[in-house]
Write a structure and sequence with these properties.
The chain has 10 helices and no strands. By secondary structure, it is an all-alpha fold.
Length: about 270
């Protein structure tokens, strides 16, 4: 921990070396500094998988700018009629499929910035778990809305539900003033994440009135709310030592996976 910081109780999970201490400079993604790829390996792996899937699609004949719905479905996009007929894996695979290069770059930029901020608080495995759980949660809520509205053929894809989920959990985790980061820095970081989430939710809702592009607002809201929910039980253990915090993560993430499975079962029966 940097000696320039006041001594406060707490710790931030090192994403690689258990002996490495993190300061506000490590957490803030906007600071100029030399950063090893291993300092946020979970985030870089997620970005790499998304880019690899996009490249794989393009190399197999998909239009780089405007994939067709059938092409997106072929590579794992979310579509209610197939999910409800047994292809539940699409709730996961859809989080790595993107509708063109601009869609990919926009989501990866947000994921990269939020990931570099969040991974010291979650660790690489925690970051991966939050991405998957909140991405699936967003797609599940979208599926539920489609069932209620009898829309069985809308195609959904992209990492944005998971990105909103990471934003949601960061808003909660950064509220812990016992972290070894100055309170003013915590407030600044948390405010920036709240502004990001609010602005993008407003933009998404605006497309309902001005349908220039199609945005799956249900996936965004589902990802965001699930991120908030995941963060609440983690906060009390963030400053209780590494082992207890990692143990709490395992319990919370396993419970979230069970809840999502039950929610999916309920949506299937509702259909």
């Amino acid at each position: 921990m940097s000696s320039s910081f006041p001594q406060q109780e707490g710790e931030i999970l090192p994403p690689t070396d258990p002996e490495m201490a993190y300061s506000a400079e490590n957490v803030a993604p906007t600071r100029r500094r030399t950063r090893s790829i291993l300092s946020a390996r979970g985030t870089y792996i997620l970005v790499g998988i998304n880019c690899a899937v996009y490249l794989w699609m393009v190399l197999h004949g998909v239009d780089p700018a405007s994939p067709t719905p059938l092409q997106l479905i072929h590579f794992g996009a979310n579509i209610p009629v197939l999910v409800l007929h047994g292809e539940w894996y699409r709730l996961l695979t859809a989080t790595f499929v993107h509708v063109g290069l601009i869609h990919l770059l926009t989501n990866m930029w947000c994921l990269w910035n939020l990931g570099l901020l969040g991974e010291p608080l979650l660790g690489p495995w925690g970051m991966g778990a939050v991405y998957l759980l909140t991405g699936i949660a967003g797609n599940l809520l979208s599926l539920g809305v489609n069932v209620v509205t009898h829309d069985m053929i809308s195609v959904g894809a992209g990492a944005s539900g998971a990105v909103f989920g990471i934003a949601g959990i960061l808003i909660v985790l950064l509220s812990n003033h016992k972290l070894p980061i100055p309170v003013s820095e915590l407030q600044r970081l948390r405010k920036s994440v709240i502004q990001f989430a609010a602005l993008n939710l407003v933009i998404g809702l605006a497309t309902i009135a001005l349908p220039l592009i199609r945005i799956d607002n249900s996936a965004h809201v589902g990802g965001f709310l699930s991120g908030l929910a995941l963060g609440v039980p983690l906060v009390p253990e963030m400053t209780s030592g590494r082992e207890r915090y990692l143990g709490r993560q395992k319990i919370v993430f396993a419970g979230a996976a069970l809840f999502l499975a039950l929610f999916g079962y309920g949506v299937a029966n509702m259909h």
